[in-house]
Amino acid sequence: MSGTVSPLAPKSFAEMPAVRGVRMATASAGIKYKNRTDVLMMIFDAPAAVAGVFTRSKCPSAPVDFCRSNLPGGVARAVVVNSGNANAFTGKKGRAATELTAQSAAKAAGCKESEVFLASTGVIGEPLDATKFSGVLDALAVSATGDVWFEAAKAIMTTDTYPKVSTRTAMIGGVTVTINGIAKGAGMIAPDMATMLSFVVTDADIAPAALQVLLSEGTGPTFNSVTVDSDTSTSDTLMLFATGAAGADGQTKIT
Predict the structure, then answer these.
(1) Domains of the chain: which residue ranges?
(2) Which of 24, 69, 114, 224 has the most neighbouring CB atoms within 10 Å?
(3) For residue 91, what pLDDT is reported?
C-alpha cells in the first residue's frame, strides 16, 4: 500500500452490510512486512456455490492453478488471500505453498482442501513461506464476523492507495438479495484484468453452473474493459460466491 492516497480516491466509501452465510477476518502474518495486515480469510457457514475467471497468461501463479483445479467442484467453504507475495514464478515451491496453505485452511474451516480457494498478490518470483499461516488461519476461522468488508479490502492491497469496496441489492423473484464486492489493483491493468484480484459474495441462491455463466458473461464489459498501462499479470483472479441464504426467504434457486 502506497503512503500517498491517489487524487482519484473517493471522498467516501460504501457502507458494506453483512452478507448472510459468509464471515471474514484479517491478520498480520508477516508475509513481507511486520505489523501489516496481509491475510484475509473468508468462511462460508454452509457450502457456497463458486465461479471464477482467471488470467489468460501462459504463466499463471500457483494460486491460480490451484483455484482452477478446485473450481469444477463448484463448492467453496473457505478463501485465503494474502498480500506481499504473489507466489508466481515459484515452480515446485509455489505448488507446495498452495498445498500447505490449503491444508491449514481446510483444517481451520473444517472442510475439504477441494473446497478451499486461494489468491496471492505482491512480489513475483520469491517463494511464499506458507508456514507463516500456521495458527493464524485457526484464529481467523474462530474470530471471523460478517461486518469487516472494509478491513478485508485493505488486507489485499499492495500498491493500491485506497481500498475498493462496493455493494448492491437486487430482486430475484420478489426476494431482495445483497451483493458485496472487494477488489485490489493499481498498475499492470489491461484487458483480462491484469494484476487485479476481486471477490464478490451474494446471499442469492444460484447453482454453480448458472453462477459461472453469469460471471463469465459479465466480465467482458466490466473488468476486461479496464486498461491502465497495457501490461498483463500472472495472478488475475475474479471469484463470485453465492451462499444461498436467500433461499430461506423464498427465493427460487437459479439453475
Answers:
(1) 22-249
(2) 24
(3) 96
